[in-house]
């Protein structure tokens, strides 16, 4: 398919652009295969470049021959284009709708983007499982890397390399995988070097209504316990939801079969509820009534901050079990790809100071979200403005980032990165020139030789179901590391990383315990209100803060210099006085 087929009118003059808190711009609107571009006629520096993939929905309005297209973006921005001529307006709107809803992943911008910067560090190879495991290997010999999933046959949503207990062989792991949802057997998520306790994650056990048992599964998770110690299983579902899952073949660990483990149920809402929560929150933030009761009522009805509280509470519980109780933890919900990852990654933010650095946080996102199989392609295909009914969409990763921001706000000196870094990641999960967040798991992101052999076989078979063949071919040919640029390749360039550095950062090796009381949790204005009110005053305050910090550093340097000079003079005086 050619993009030109979807562009009915590639260029329109005398278009007026309206954006929040910015002067109106009149210029020429151009549509390309991936961008909506508006260039000012008066000021050549005034341009708008908007990825079609960032467009969530559009609305059309007409007054006489003047048409208006309101573009609602996945980053929650709303812009207005006044287009002269009804036909031109209809053509532009139709083209935008077609270009912003392309089905094929390989037609997205990351496959066409060519970086204007030199790639010094290839982000695709920066956070390999073998590299992450080296630190654990230096601390303990109780774990090993398993390649049982090297061809993705054991668990399609897991990476090819996983950390498992050293005493458990690969054949046992294969049996455990058949007992866990989608083959997601328990794997190492975090090793707490302070006391050697671990956090694992998995999918739900497939106990079913008959109370099915798997002794290999019991053996695997018991292998993580120290002599005389008990562990905790944190189930991110309510007990009722977990009970209902048994009727569908799922379930939870029965105490009779796991006597050394205590099961705790903590309710974190499922994806469809979270998507509705986001939609209601954004609607509340866009309410122009200026009525306090209406605002507070809508904010409460969205349950967004309630969701934040539940997720943070569960993460704090996991961290407390590990650090204060001295117990190992297994976290799972149903699939183990959403709420499970929120809990395990936030617990690491609390426990591990490395995760609070830029590089450490990138490693966390890569390890606990991308490699762990969070379905970014499904979850982030729509945002809060889409007119279609949500199917797989949910702001799971955005909620995680919001929780991180809540902790950062409470501990502003303990994070190397700033709020801009979190907002930057939020934007790129929904629309990006980089390939990092495309696909739903490692299997979909990489070309696997064994699958290519299978694909060649499929080509020669005439009786294969067409849809299955097409889907397998599509998945096997993504080859993101070869065909797209990694987001980390750009972020980790020193000149670009500088904008994400927190000027208040002071390395803190301690565990940080965030408050989860309702009074401590705030609406993340940097995401949800940045297009609704001007940030000029906040930006000016931030610049002044940086100026004060830099000035303080200069004064501190002068003080240190004067102290050295004073010490040298005192030494000389002592030498002169000595006969």
Automatic annotation (TrEMBL):
Superkingdom of this protein's organism: Eukaryota
Domain Myotubularin phosphatase: 123-528
Pfam families associated with the record: Myotub-related, PH-GRAM_MTMR6-like
InterPro entries membership: Myotubularin (IPR030564), Myotubularin-like_Pase_dom (IPR010569), PH-GRAM_MTMR6-9 (IPR048994), PH-like_dom_sf (IPR011993), Prot-tyrosine_phosphatase-like (IPR029021)
Xref: CDD domains: PH-GRAM_MTMR9 (cd13211), PTP-MTMR9 (cd14536)
Similarity comment text for this entry: Belongs to the protein-tyrosine phosphatase family. Non-receptor class myotubularin subfamily.
Protein name listed in UniProt: MTMR9 protein
Organism for this UniProt entry: Polyodon spathula
Lineage, highest ranks first: Eukaryota, Metazoa, Chordata, Craniata, Vertebrata
